[in-house]
Design brief:
Elements: H1 2-15, H2 20-42, H3 49-68, H4 77-101, H5 133-145
Helix pairs in contact: 2-3
Length: 146
């Protein structure tokens, strides 16, 4: 009987309509967090960029789940499932970041065939490359015909 009463109480709570103001505030918060994600992505933070993006995405997902999916209004098992899910996501992200922290940047060992390669400046000589090669051939052909 208690379960039936709890179910009816939840249905009654779900039928209560909240004002649009709450949803507008959450929507604005999501927009602000999206802008923060875009701006920090353009800053190219080498060490903290991934961590910051994951934190912002987690906050945005939590806001959507709590307010647009109405998990903040539920009691009992729903909150437990949501909490355990968040715990496992945090563990997954944490272990992934710890794994990334133990890796090293790939480098060519000294003495290998690639260790003395230099970066090529693509725009250095306009007569070479994809668009300028035909000009060099025309110049050579013109010199041989003279």
């Amino acid at each position: 009987m208690a379960i039936a009463n709890e179910s009816r109480q939840e249905e009654h709570n779900m039928q209560e309509h909240h004002g649009a103001g709450r949803y507008v505030v959450i929507w604005i918060a999501l927009l602000v967090l999206t802008l923060v994600t875009v701006f920090t992505g353009r800053m190219h933070l080498p060490d903290f960029g991934l961590v910051l993006a994951l934190i912002i995405a987690s906050v945005k997902g939590t806001l959507v789940a709590l307010y647009f999916m109405h998990l903040s209004e539920h009691q009992g098992a729903n909150r437990l499932v949501f909490g355990v899910s968040i715990l496992f996501v945090v563990l997954l992200i944490g272990f992934s970041l710890m794994d990334l922290g133990t890796r090293f940047r790939l480098a060519n060992p000294p003495g290998s065939q690639y260790s003395d390669l230099q970066a090529v400046d693509i725009g250095a000589n306009p007569t070479e490359g994809r668009t300028g090669g035909h000009q060099q051939l025309q110049k050579q052909n013109h010199e041989t015909h003279e």
